[in-house]
UniProtKB/TrEMBL annotation:
The name this protein goes by in its record: FtsQ-type POTRA domain-containing protein
Record-annotated POTRA domain positions: 164-232
Keywords: Cell cycle, Cell division, Cell membrane, Membrane, Transmembrane, Transmembrane helix
Pro residues biased stretches: 1-11
Length: 359
């Protein structure tokens, strides 16, 4: 059985030798300096060493000087190095070690700040490059919004300027009233910008016309103000101490004359214009068709449930009753009067629309 051969041993590095990338120790630097200062020649062997007590068998090979560079194939030639060359190599090896460890003793705060600033600048440039479409879209939206805001501000500013001042007042819906008189009453609004027309001043001027029930203002740029009127509908006249007063269904006095007006029915209401009987009579008169209302010469009521109408020269009575279902009653009365004229009838009783009584 064969004995295993011994493993090869790694060669022992000579004293002072370093590997690439390994930092140089202080002891190695001292050895190099001593070798540079010591005189040339073989070094004396140590007096007492472990090698003398235990000499190795066989001839010993002379030790090559430390300062001899390693050359492949030419081991016999030795080139001595000067102290300056050794120091330069030590500095180069120290610089290489510092470069390998990433430490530079000469880097200051200013260089670090410049490098950080350059890094931030490069990062911002990359962010801008990747968000260019988003920023472009945002700029478009902001531009559109700014345009709309400027347009709105310009429109509002122009509307409140004298460029849109009132130069013409038109009155629409006046039948019993004189439209020119109403326009003259509102002449104080001429020259006022349309959005700044004083509605309270307009109301104060129109109160002087009792026939106006409601009104509405309409601006027609650039210079026209339109006043739309709804006139009151007179339902009859009431005899008072001052004469005969024309009133509407709400009891508002429209005008007063000394003698009764022709074609206007006379109202005989118990309790006056503030009573429920007057309210029922006014509602009945407003529900009549125009052709029947023109034939009414008198209206009487003592309660809200006994409204009675008197028709033209025949003195035909129309018993209406209360104001409920006035539209149906007016429609049935119109049909009955077409079939049987008032000249042949003394009384129409439409208090019950389903059962009209004619006498």
């Amino acid at each position: 059985m064969r004995r295993p051969s011994p493993l090869p041993q790694s060669p022992v590095a000579p004293r002072g030798a370093t590997t690439a990338g390994e930092p140089v120790s202080r002891a190695a630097v001292d050895d190099v300096v001593q070798d540079a200062v010591a005189p040339a020649g073989p070094k004396p062997r140590a007096a007492a060493s472990g090698a003398d007590e235990h000499p190795t068998a066989g001839p010993t090979r002379p030790e090559a000087p430390r300062d001899a560079p390693a050359r492949g194939g030419d081991l016999g030639t030795v080139i001595p190095l000067s102290a300056e060359t050794r120091a330069a190599r030590l500095d180069a090896s120290s610089d290489g070690a510092d470069a390998d460890t990433g430490m530079d003793p000469e880097v200051g705060f200013r260089e670090v700040w410049k490098a950080s600033r350059a890094r931030r600048k490069a990062l911002r440039a990359e962010v801008r490059r990747f968000t260019v479409r988003q920023r472009r879209r945002r700029a478009v939206w902001l531009g559109a919004a700014a345009s709309l805001v400027l347009l709105a501000l310009g429109t509002v500013g122009a509307a409140y300027s004298p460029l849109f001042g009132v130069e013409k007042i038109s009155v629409v819906g006046a039948q019993q009233l004189d439209a020119g008189e109403v326009a003259d009453a509102l002449s104080g609004q001429l020259g006022t910008p349309l959005p700044l027309v004083d509605e309270s001043a307009v109301k104060k001027a129109l109160v002087a016309f009792p026939l106006i029930e409601t009104y509405a203002l309409e601006a027609r740029p650039p210079h026209e103000l339109v006043v739309r009127l709804v006139e009151r509908t007179p339902v009859g006249i009431i005899e008072t101490r001052a004469g005969y007063t024309l009133v509407d269904a709400a009891g508002v006095a429209l005008s007063t004359t000394a003698t009764p007006s022709a074609g206007v029915p006379l109202l005989t209401i118990t309790g006056g214009v503030k009573s429920d009987a007057f309210a029922a009579a006014g509602q009945v008169m407003r529900s009549l068709p125009d052709d029947i209302r023109a034939q009414v010469t008198g209206v009487s009521a003592s309660t809200p449930d006994d409204v009675t109408l008197t028709l033209g020269g025949t003195n035909t009575q129309v018993v209406w009753g209360n104001a409920e279902r006035s539209a149906d009653k007016a429609l049935r009365l119109q049909k009955i009067m077409a079939a049987r004229p008032p000249a042949d009838v003394s009384t129409y009783d439409v208090s019950s629309p389903e059962a009209v009584v004619v006498r």
